[in-house]
Amino acid sequence: MKKVLYRSFGGLDVLELADADVPEPGEHEVLVAVKAAAVNPVDWKMREGQVKFLTGWRMPQGQGLEFSGVVERVGRAVTAYAAGDQVFGAANDCLAEFVVAKEGKIAKKPADVTFEAASTIPVAGTTASSVFERAAISQGTEVLINGATGGIGMFGTQLAVRRGAHVTAVVSEKGAEYVQRWGAHHVVDYRKNNILEIGRQFDVVVELSDKLSFTQGRQLLKPGGKYVASLPRPVELLSGLVSNLYSRQKYALMGMQARTDALAALAGEVASGHVEVVIGQTYSLTAFREAYAATSAGRFAGKVVFTVGQHT
Ligand SMILES: NC(=O)c1ccc[n+]([C@@H]2O[C@H](COP(=O)([O-])OP(=O)(O)OC[C@H]3O[C@@H](n4cnc5c(N)ncnc54)[C@H](OP(=O)(O)O)[C@@H]3O)[C@@H](O)[C@H]2O)c1
Known about the structure:
Low-confidence stretches: none
Largest sheet: 7 strands, mixed
CATH architecture of the largest domain: Alpha-Beta Complex
Mean pLDDT: 96
Shape: globular
Helix content: 25-40%
Order of helices and strands: EEEHHEEEEEHHEHEHEEHEHEHEHE
Strand content: 25-35%
Number of strands: 16
Number of helices: 10
CATH topology of the largest domain: Quinone Oxidoreductase, Chain A, domain 1
CATH class of the largest domain: Alpha Beta
Number of domains: 2
Bound molecules: NADP nicotinamide-adenine-dinucleotide phosphate
């Protein structure tokens, strides 16, 4: 099979499309013929060696953490899935024609959710869902979403509006029409405004841009507010811990939770039309360099997705 991989940490030039053996599913795993795999910023953070505590040092390594496809074969202990099932989920190395996934990290794809849309749920969707476990967001909660039309922001903005929150969406020009359609109450273009100077304070600040530190985010929080970070920066984790002990302003870290129940719940929201999945662009597997170059440059709103194989 074909698989995108790299043999040393680095930039786009270390990526290659290689021939690889089709992996064998273990007892509690399924082998899936990939139909779509979505791009995430963590893909290039892993490839560049920024998160070696996650990747380790072994080489070669594959790319891609979320996928959808059709079950080809199941492990001996798997009873919930069978060959031919359309599924989606999280797994390593899914930028390939076949991927092996743990049965607890996949769910069946509803028929009226496309393979492309389903492939965006496991990382971006479930990380957005985790925000609602970390911070109380309900009717009238004032929420600022900094990066509202990226992968996580797309899900987070719509889920927050659905819970009745009063949402301020921070976007660039290309995202404004989406957040208006999703019902955001205020839209701030970060290229035209300094959000630290908008003169408002929030119950919850959801940081997705990699640009707004906890120290800055606190300026936007009400006295009892909470900052929900997307990245575990060591210094911030420490100041967050101290703040959680001694201040009314709290810190929390969102985290992907690609379990079957969480995946199925989100797919239901997409299937029922309550959450729109914006696919900014699709690429074939062979266009891996172009796709990562465009995505890391922030060219598209929503998600960038690889389409793999034939869609039936
Ligand atoms: N903790 C976890 O488990 C977990 C899981 C997944 C991802 N993450 C991390 O979460 C972060 C967000 O992920 P994602 O998939 O949503 O990324 P993404 O799709 O790249 O979205 C980033 C968003 O930030 C916006 N942005 C860029 N510069 C900005 C600025 N100066 N001010 C305000 N917004 C700005 C972008 O808007 P424009 O495109 O309009 O510029 C875009 O909407 C990444 O750092 C990722 O690594 C964490």
